[in-house]
Design brief:
With about 260 residues, the chain is mainly alpha-helical. The protein has helices spanning about 15-20, 25, 40-70, 75-95, 100-110, 120-130, 145-155, 160-170, 175-185, 190-225, 235-240, 250-255. It is globular. It starts with 16 loop residues before the first helix and ends with a helix.
């Protein structure tokens, strides 16, 4: 057997290839706490991690949409499965904030001003892709032409479920509860891949709900029923979102099976 070799240590550059490739210097320069409360940095890191994951999930769902439009069901399911991994990390990202006490959060909350997670344009893209489309929210980015244009495109374009529905219609099925009931009962052999798609969509839906529930629990734990920093009603607003079914047609089909 060949003897183990030591990793190369001298690259003749100011930094390592790893640092340059992943933009590590820039990444570690983006945390700027405004208070002396140590947990504020954890809050910032958790927020930034989620933002990166939102963008990655948008890419996977958009890839799935393009595949669905091309009748490439394997390509669509592969993208959605990759997205499940992203969603799992998103849900578990709330663990970073699970040890923060109300006193710690209150110590730096005033420095947030009117900043609130619902203002995240990366997250708005995901909500629009899920079909939760509210044109009024575009006002948040009226002064940011690039973001506004991208959000408007997502808002006015097909949702992920719209593309699923179009695929079912091309197969001679409806995308309502009745159509999914037919898919799940497995009448014809070519419906089997659609049944697998339905289960994969429910995997997506469950993870969206888990993320919303973790968000609700985190807010309840750290600030109780106080109003949100961005002007929302806080806990009650988050509870309404957490109670909303994602892909309700798939859930309704369960009643007939």
């Amino acid at each position: 057997m060949a003897s183990p070799t030591s990793p190369r240590l001298d690259f003749g550059e100011p930094t390592t290839p790893y640092t340059a490739y992943a933009g590590i210097d820039e990444l570690h320069s983006l945390q700027h706490p405004r208070s002396k409360e140590p947990s504020e940095r954890t809050f910032i890191v958790a927020t930034q991690v989620m933002e990166l994951l939102f963008a990655q999930l948008r890419q996977e769902w958009t890839t799935a949409q393009h595949a669905l439009r091309a009748d490439d069901l394997p390509g669509a399911t592969a993208a959605l499965r990759r997205g499940l991994g992203v969603q799992d990390v998103l849900v578990n990202s709330w663990d970073l904030l699970s040890t923060m006490t109300p006193v710690e959060f209150s110590a730096f909350r005033p420095y947030l001003g009117e900043a609130s997670g619902f203002q995240s344009y990366a997250y708005l893209h995901l909500e629009f892709l899920l079909g939760n489309k509210h044109e009024r929210l575009l006002e948040l980015y009226a002064g940011h032409p690039r973001v506004h244009a991208e959000l408007a495109e997502t808002l006015h374009g097909p949702s992920l479920y719209d593309d699923v529905a179009a695929l079912l219609e091309r197969r001679g099925l409806t995308a309502d509860a009745e159509g999914w009931t037919e898919v799940y009962r497995g009448g014809e052999a070519h419906h089997r891949d659609l049944a697998l798609l339905g289960e994969l969509l429910l995997d997506v839906a469950e993870r969206v709900t888990r993320w919303r529930q973790r968000h609700l629990a985190s807010v309840k734990r750290t600030m109780g029923t106080k109003p949100g920093t961005g002007g929302s009603s806080g806990l009650s607003w988050l509870r309404k979102a957490a109670d909303q079914d994602v892909f309700p047609e798939l859930w309704s089909a369960r009643n007939a099976l």
